[in-house]
Design brief:
Shape: globular
Largest sheet: 4 strands, mixed
Strand order of the largest sheet: 4-3-2-5
Distance between the termini: 39 Å
Radius of gyration: 16 Å
Helix content: 25-40%
Low-confidence stretches: 1-7
Order of helices and strands: EEEEHEHEHEHHEH
Number of helices: 6
Number of strands: 8
Length: 184
C-alpha cells in the first residue's frame, strides 16, 4: 500500500536494525515506512533523525509505538532469504515528481531476482531519454532495499552506482541470485 503526501508536522519513529549489509536506519510515520538508511553506525545514527526531522518537518522519536515492528520483521526475513516481496505501507513524502514516478514503477515493476536498465526504467515511465535522471532518482531513493534500486543496472551489464556502495549492491544482488556469492 502506498500513501501519498500527508500534512507536514507528523511524528516519525526511528530505530536501527542489524542486516546482512550492516546496520540500517528505519523510520516510519503513521502513514508507512518513510526512510531506510544504509551504514547506520554510531556516528551517522546521531545525524539521521535530525536530518529526517528537517526533511519531513516532523517530530522524530526513537521507536515508541511499534510502527517499525513489521518493517524490521520483513527486512529480517528478506536477508534470511525467506521474503521476496515486501508488503508494507510506504509513505512517499521524501520523494516527489519524476523521482516518485520512477521509484513507484521500480517498486511494482521489477521483482526479486531480476534487474532493469536505467534506460529501460526511463522508457517505462514515458521518458525514454532520461536514463541519467533515473540514476539520480535511484541515488535519492529514501527507501532502498524495500524499493529495490539495487536492481537497476547499466545497459551493458555494469552495476552502475549505488548510494549504499557497490559492495552493498553486489551483496543484495547475490542474495537475490542475480550475481554469484563472493568467493571470499
Amino acid at each position: 500500500m502506498d500513501i501519498e503526501d500527508g500534512p507536514r508536522g507528523v511524528t516519525a519513529e526511528w530505530t536501527v536494525v542489524a542486516s546482512g549489509i550492516g546496520p540500517l536506519f528505519l523510520a516510519a510515520t503513521a502513514r508507512g515506512l518513510v526512510q531506510v538508511g544504509f551504514h547506520a553506525d554510531a556516528g551517522r545514527r546521531e545525524r539521521m533523525p535530525e536530518r529526517l526531522a528537517e526533511q519531513l518537518g516532523a517530530v522524530v522519536v526513537e521507536r515508541s509505538t511499534g510502527l517499525l515492528a513489521e518493517p524490521a520483521r520483513q527486512l529480517d526475513r528478506y536477508f534470511a532469504g525467506a521474503l521476496r516481496a515486501f508488503e508494507l505501507p510506504l509513505d512517499w513524502s521524501l520523494a516527489t515528481g519524476f523521482n516518485r514516478q520512477v521509484l513507484r514503477e521500480l517498486a511494482g515493476g521489477v521483482p526479486y531476482g531480476t534487474v532493469v536498465g536505467y534506460g529501460e526504467l526511463a522508457r517505462r515511465v514515458g521518458q525514454p531519454g532520461a536514463a541519467q535522471a533515473v540514476g539520480a532518482a535511484m541515488g535519492a531513493n529514501p527507501l532502498p532495499v524495500v524499493v529495490p534500486c539495487h536492481r537497476v543496472v547499466e545497459s551493458d551489464g555494469g552495476l552502475g552506482g549505488f548510494g549504499g556502495g557497490l559492495e552493498t549492491k553486489r551483496k543484495l544482488l547475490a542474495l537475490e541470485g542475480v550475481l554469484p556469492e563472493p568467493l571470499f
